[in-house]
């Protein structure tokens, strides 16, 4: 019954005509103590942090006017939104715009069209996401979905170090001294996770929990012991209801779950939010950090602590089914991406998805696509480190995303959603050379191959656990779209990004980029035509030298350690 209702409402959504919603952000530095331990400089809006969540209704258009009062550029990305016919509004610095210069303003036009669900707004310039410039962006369905109340659970990790200082540390030449692990605190709805407010339940009512991870690095688990969670949305895509015990969220993933209150108000219950990482040591009180909040049926009622079973059922995207029944795409082209480390000859520890670590071009890629004529169809004009793949108009692409390392990755796609086709193990012959003798690749858990059945689920951010691959398919609109790891700034800024240039010939015929985008670049002395270096043809004079990789160490035989895996610990088996 509920499936049929959701399907009808999804059909009606395509008829939505909405309102104009106007919002102004003055982006400023703020001094904050968000975790109760460390005062630090952060980035907020209107001199405040946390930033208030943004709510609109399906079919509405958000006009977000940004006044940049920082001393560096900024850019705002609507995470998960497909900017139909307006790729220049994607908010990716040096990809779709030059960034908003200091002491200047810009208005983003963000059209929801038929999209609805749980998203977030965040900076897409360097590491500003980690400095606080992020907030939930909720697009309510035009027609109610049969629940009584909305409950927002926005999850963040919060570090004591400014992102710019962290980047200097991460990208500095290796001194053979391992970086000390850092242990962030957890924030829930913008505040210390220990200071959460009670969620009030009434007997028999249905509550839609929108659980979103705006974390930069660490993962979150969410459970309400004594209650089942009915998953109805993942990353803005409605799905056939899936009944689970808990959610395991990678950075930038989102879920909606419907929770039905119990028939008795004799007891109150707790919900659990656990911040954790498999790639740093497990130390009691530091990793994981467990935060709890109250599910209050009746004020003063005793709390009933329900122990979770050892084998609990987590939300599982490969076994979900998209509610709109979109048929699986065919394959016009397959692209293989593999996460690998890249130790340069000057001992910088970078990362790569393609052949080289990603680095920003000197000309935003959208302007290269618009100005290079027929050469825009040649990936070389976008520069060697933009890692550009040219995709034809309306082409269906199958991505095989391989994690050859012992650390998990969270891969985000701009400009569309993935159809999740398959998960499985990476062949041992493709795993990175093992530097740590305390860990043997022969001990890696056996990972089964799991393939979708019926209708594939879609989402825009997908977790790729250690030593595993995920196979996805997608079809993107014409535009310039990033694909990158959302562990920021440690992974994306260090090089785990590639660029999909979709139908640049169509872009040249159909796009009319507003003049203000060119003015932003002119104010910063950035060119708006030519190749990645601002030259013509394939002349890349002016770009930094392409990094050279240190020769790989000689193989140590079948035994060895997986790079990034914690000592005396095995990576988790993918769900």
**Beta-strand percentage range:** 25-35%
Query: Which stretches of 5+ consecutive residues score pLDDT under 50?
Result: 555-571
Q: What is the approximate shape?
A: globular
- Mean of the pLDDT scores? 90
Structural class: mainly beta
Major sheet details: 7 strands, mixed
Rg over alpha carbons = 23 Å
How far apart are the termini? 29 Å
| Largest beta sheet: strand ordering | 11-10-9-13-18-15-16
Number of contiguous helices: 5
Work out the number of β strands. Answer: 32
Indicate the percent of residues in helices: under 10%
What can you tell me about this protein's structure?
Helix content is 8%, strand content 34%. The protein has helices spanning 2-13, 163-171, 365-371, 504-510, 515-523; strands at 20-32, 40-45, 54-57, 61-68, 76-79, 104-111, 117-123, 134-140, 149-158, 185-188, 191-192, 199-200, 206-213, 219-223, 229-234, 237-244, 246-249, 254-260, 269-276, 289-296, 333-343, 349-352, 388-391, 397-403, 409-413, 418-425, 450-451, 458-459, 461-464, 468-474, 479-485, 497-502. The strands form 6 sheets. Strands 11-10-9-13-18-15-16 form a 7-stranded mixed sheet, covered by helices on one side.
Quick summary of this structure?
It contains 5 helices and 32 strands. It is mainly beta and 575 residues long.
């Amino acid at each position: 019954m509920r499936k049929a209702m959701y399907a009808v409402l999804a059909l009606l959504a395509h008829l939505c005509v909405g309102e104009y919603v106007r919002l102004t952000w003055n982006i400023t530095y703020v001094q904050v103590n968000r975790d109760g331990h460390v005062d630090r400089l952060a980035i907020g809006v209107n001199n405040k942090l946390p930033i208030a969540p943004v709510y609109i209704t399906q079919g509405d258009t958000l006009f977000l006017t940004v006044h940049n009062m920082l001393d560096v550029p900024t850019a705002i990305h609507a995470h998960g939104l497909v900017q139909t016919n307006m790729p220049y509004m994607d908010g990716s610095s040096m990809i779709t715009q030059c960034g908003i210069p200091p002491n200047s303003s810009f208005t983003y036009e963000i059209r929801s069209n038929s999209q609805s669900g749980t998203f977030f707004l965040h900076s897409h310039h360097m590491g500003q996401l980690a400095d606080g410039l992020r907030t939930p962006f909720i697009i309510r369905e035009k027609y109610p979905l049969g629940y009584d109340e909305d409950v927002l659970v926005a999850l963040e990790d919060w570090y004591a170090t400014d992102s710019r200082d962290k980047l200097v540390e991460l990208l500095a030449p290796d001194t053979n001294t391992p970086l000390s692990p850092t242990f962030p605190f957890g924030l829930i709805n913008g505040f210390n996770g220990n200071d959460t407010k009670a969620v009030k339940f009434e007997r028999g009512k249905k509550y839609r929990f929108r659980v979103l991870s705006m974390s930069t690095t660490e993962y979150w688990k969410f459970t309400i012991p004594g209650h089942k969670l009915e998953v109805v949305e993942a990353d803005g895509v409605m799905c056939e209801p899936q009944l689970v015990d808990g959610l395991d969220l990678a950075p930038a993933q989102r879920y909606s779950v419907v929770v039905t209150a119990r028939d008795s108000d004799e007891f109150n219950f707790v919900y659990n939010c656990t911040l954790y990482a498999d790639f740093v040591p497990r130390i009691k009180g530091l990793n994981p950090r467990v935060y709890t909040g109250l599910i209050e049926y009746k004020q003063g009622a005793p709390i009933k602590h329900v122990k979770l079973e050892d084998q609990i059922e987590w939300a599982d995207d490969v076994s979900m089914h998209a509610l709109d029944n979109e048929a699986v795409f065919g394959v016009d082209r397959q692209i293989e991406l593999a996460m690998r480390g890249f130790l340069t000859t000057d001992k910088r520890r970078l990362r790569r998805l393609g052949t080289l670590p990603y680095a920003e071009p000197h000309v935003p890629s959208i302007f290269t696509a618009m100005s290079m004529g027929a050469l825009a169809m040649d990936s070389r004009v976008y520069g060697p480190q933009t890692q550009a793949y040219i995709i034809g108009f309306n082409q269906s692409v199958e991505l095989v995303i391989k994690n050859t390392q012992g650390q998990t990755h969270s891969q985000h796609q701009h400009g569309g959603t993935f159809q999740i086709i398959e998960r499985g193990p990476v062949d041992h012959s493709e795993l990175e050379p093992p530097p740590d003798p305390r860990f043997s690749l022969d001990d890696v858990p056996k990972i089964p191959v799991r393939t979708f059945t019926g209708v594939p689920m879609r989402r825009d951010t997908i977790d790729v656990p250690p030593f595993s691959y995920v196979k996805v398919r997608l079809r993107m609109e014409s535009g310039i779209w990033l694909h990158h790891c959302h562990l920021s700034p440690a992974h994306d800024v260090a090089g785990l990004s590639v660029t999909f240039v979709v139908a640049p010939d169509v872009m040249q015929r159909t796009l009319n980029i507003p003049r203000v985008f060119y003015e932003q670049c002119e104010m910063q002395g950035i060119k708006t035509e030519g190749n990645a270096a601002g030259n013509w043809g394939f002349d890349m004079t002016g770009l930094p030298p392409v990094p050279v990789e240190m020769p790989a160490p000689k193989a140590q035989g079948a035994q060895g350690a997986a790079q990034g895996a914690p000592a005396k610990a095995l990576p988790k088996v993918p769900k």
